[in-house]
Write a structure and sequence with these properties.
The chain is mainly beta and about 190 residues long. It folds into 3 domains: about 60 residues, SH3 type barrels (Roll), CATH 2.30.30.30; about 60 residues, OB fold (Dihydrolipoamide Acetyltransferase, E2P); about 60 residues, OB fold (Dihydrolipoamide Acetyltransferase, E2P) (Beta Barrel). It contains no helices and 16 strands. The radius of gyration is 20 Å and the shape is flat. The protein starts with a strand and ends with a strand.
Length: about 190
């Protein structure tokens, strides 16, 4: 058991007969009335994000979640296949359980969340930033950088992302997997 004072980003709680991860929280103490905690909770089974308000001191049941390092192997009809880095055991995972499947490439390291008591897969988290190569993009014209203009670029994984005009084909870029956005060019 935990209280609202124990809330932190990434904490997994049991709420409404489901497992939710706290994405964001804010303690509020209004001038009049009791204190409360506003939260954004992400369901680990459906992926939906809901807003909920808890009164201060409210008790919640926490779930024990383990992060285990796995390596992405391949994708087929059964889903995405990952191998445990320590036991070499392979497990298939459905696409909806992966936070950014379009950026997965062979051999990439990811964290898989497991419910500790049930040994059930709750989700797959890619690193916050991934480095990928651009396979195709239109050439940028000199002098087009006066505005914040972007153009589509196809990545080595088949995904398409918006990049600044000065980025060219065969360059390597860093991408934020949480916001699906270009971060910087990698040399």
């Amino acid at each position: 058991m935990a209280t609202t004072a124990d809330f932190r980003n990434g904490l997994v709680i049991e709420f409404n007969h489901d497992l939710f991860m706290i994405v964001e929280f804010q303690h509020v103490k209004p001038g009049k009335g009791p204190a409360f905690v506003r939260t954004k909770l992400k369901s680990l089974t459906t992926g939906k994000v809901i807003d909920n308000t808890f009164s201060a001191g409210h008790k919640v049941t926490t779930a024990r979640v383990e992060r285990r390092a796995h390596q992405f192997l391949f994708k087929d009809d059964l889903g995405y296949h990952f191998m445990d880095s320590s036991t070499f055991e392979q497990i298939p995972v459905q696409e909806e359980m992966i936070n950014a499947p379009q950026y997965l490439k062979d051999g990439q390291e990811v964290d898989i969340l497991f419910h500790a008591e049930q040994e059930k897969v709750l989700g797959v988290e890619l690193p916050q930033h991934v480095v990928l190569q651009i396979v195709y993009t239109e050439p940028g014209l000199k002098g087009d950088t006066a505005t914040n203009a972007t153009k589509p670029a196809e990545l080595e994984t088949g995904a398409t992302i918006q990049v600044p005009l000065f980025i060219n084909q065969d360059e390597t870029i860093k991408i934020n997997t949480e916001t699906n956005s270009y971060v910087e060019r990698v040399k």
